[in-house]
Design a protein that fits this description.
about 20% helix, Fumarylacetoacetate hydrolase, domain 2, binds magnesium ion, about 290 residues, binds 2,5-dioxopentanoic acid, 18 strands, 2 domains
């Protein structure tokens, strides 16, 4: 059972449950409405949709990015030891990254509004003014307005690393640009995931048929727990339509191994999904 959005053949947008053979409509118009509810109610509605909801043939539905409305994506940073040491090395601002790794308050940043989000099969964006951009393969938590974890997604937090390396204060320009936020299509309910604290994340980048970078990490290597990140995100903030929190990367390509237009990045997370995107110069993306 997964939670998805889709465009029906009559052009309307629906939200519902994806099963192997069919989609079943939920009695909500948007995913934002789903994320206004408590997990117990979302679960009940999803189970009822499977047993009684109107069923749709997946061939008649075009799957869309998983969130809408006022739902935002935020990122957590420097949550893995490798992210801390790699960023210190690439930028020379060692103290900044070491401090945020050790500090109580984590690094949290706004990443994307719903309208900018891309999903599996869409192009990923590369800024034309940065020649060192990288994939950041991350587990993303889908949170409702009540700060409960509803489910999980795969996120590629595409980053213009060369811009951040010049000065960490350039972070918004390194993180937010057309095509920089890619999420898998289907929200995997948290209650269906075994051992969510220890999921394997992998990435492979292909240039044509050639594998130019691959890596893996386990979420158990994160320095902070999910609950801790969620609690900090909601401290002094409100998310009336819920929020997606990407939990940071434990995989960092070596310096000089930046993405090029045409590269295909494939990110997988055990039990959560796969995200495959071909990179493109982002000049005319939206
Ligand atoms: O400090 C910059 C951002 C770090 C980040 O996105 C990550 O560690 O995943
Ligand atoms: Mg990141």
């Amino acid at each position: 059972m997964k939670l998805v959005r889709w465009r029906a053949s009559d052009g309307t947008t629906k939200v519902g449950v994806q099963e192997d053979e069919y989609l079943a409509e939920l009695p909500f118009a948007t995913m934002a409405e789903v994320l206004q509810r408590k997990v117990v109610d979302i679960r009940r509605a999803a189970e009822e949709a499977v047993s009684r909801g109107r069923r749709v043939d997946p061939a008649e539905a075009e799957l869309l990015a998983p969130v809408d409305g006022r739902t935002e994506v935020w990122g957590a940073g420097v949550t893995y030891q490798l992210s801390r040491s790699a960023r210190a090395e690439e930028s020379g601002f060692e103290e900044v990254y070491h401090h945020v790794y050790e500090a109580d308050r984590p690094e949290l940043f706004f990443k994307s509004a719903a309208w900018r989000m891309l999903t599996d099969g869409d192009p990923g964006g590369l800024r034309p003014d940065c020649d060192d951009s990288v994939c950041e393969p991350e587990l993303a938590l889908v949170l409702n307005r009540h700060a409960e974890i509803v489910g999980a997604l795969v996120c590629n937090d595409l980053t213009a690393r060369g811009i951040e390396a010049v000065n960490p204060i350039y972070l918004p320009q390194a993180k937010l640009f057309p095509g920089s936020c890619v999420l898998s299509t289907a929200i995997v309910p948290w209650w269906t995931i075994d051992t969510p604290e220890d999921l394997l994340i992998t990435v492979a980048v292909y240039r044509g048929a050639e594998l130019v970078f691959s890596g893996e990490a386990r979420t158990s290597a994160m320095r902070r727990g999910y609950g801790e990140l969620v609690q900090w995100l909601f401290r002094g903030e409100q998310f009336p339509d819920g929020v997606v929190l990407s939990t940071g990367t434990g995989i960092v390509p070596p310096l000089g191994a930046g993405l090029r237009p045409g590269d295909r990045a494939i990110v997988t997370i055990d039990q959560v999904g796969v995200l495959s995107n071909v990179m493109t110069d982002n000049r005319d993306m939206f």
